[in-house]
Specification:
GO terms for molecular function: peptidase activity. The protein is mostly helical and 131 residues long. It is built from six helices and three strands, in the order ααβαββααα.
């Protein structure tokens, strides 16, 4: 069964709650949002034609670029896009929980200015090589 938005949001919260304490403490100001798809203007800005191609997105200024003197109009946010994630889940061997966790870790990693390789290492540390 495919989870609705509310259930999907609970899955994302569970994935976040399972992150290492230090990681959660440093990302406590990041809001997690769940939507079926990215907004059309977001897809256009990213030059993405197929809305199923975007599983998640970090929106904000990463901590390596922030200054105490900067004023930010919006909080940092991570978006998880339910329908693209569900379609991705149907095409591979990973569980839905594993995919949600992976996308969440990846997008929060952008909050810290991490590279993709850094994020894979973090995920391995948090969940083990097979997680």
């Amino acid at each position: 069964m495919k989870p609705d938005l509310e259930t999907f949001g609970k899955m994302a919260q569970t994935a976040y709650d399972e992150l290492p304490e230090a990681f959660r403490r440093m990302s406590a100001d990041v809001m997690i949002r769940v939507a079926d798809f990215a907004e059309d203007d977001v897809l256009a800005d990213l030059e993405i034609d197929d809305p199923y191609d975007l599983l998640g997105l970090y929106h904000g200024v990463d901590v390596t670029q922030k200054s105490l003197w900067d004023v930010h109009a919006q909080p940092d946010m991570v978006f998880l896009y339910r329908r693209p994630i569900l379609r991705f889940w149907q095409t591979g061997p990973d569980t839905l929980d594993e995919i949600v966790r992976h996308v969440l870790v990846h997008e929060i990693g952008h909050h810290f200015g991490l590279s993709d390789d850094d994020m894979y290492g973090l995920e391995d540390d948090a969940y083990g090589e097979d997680g």
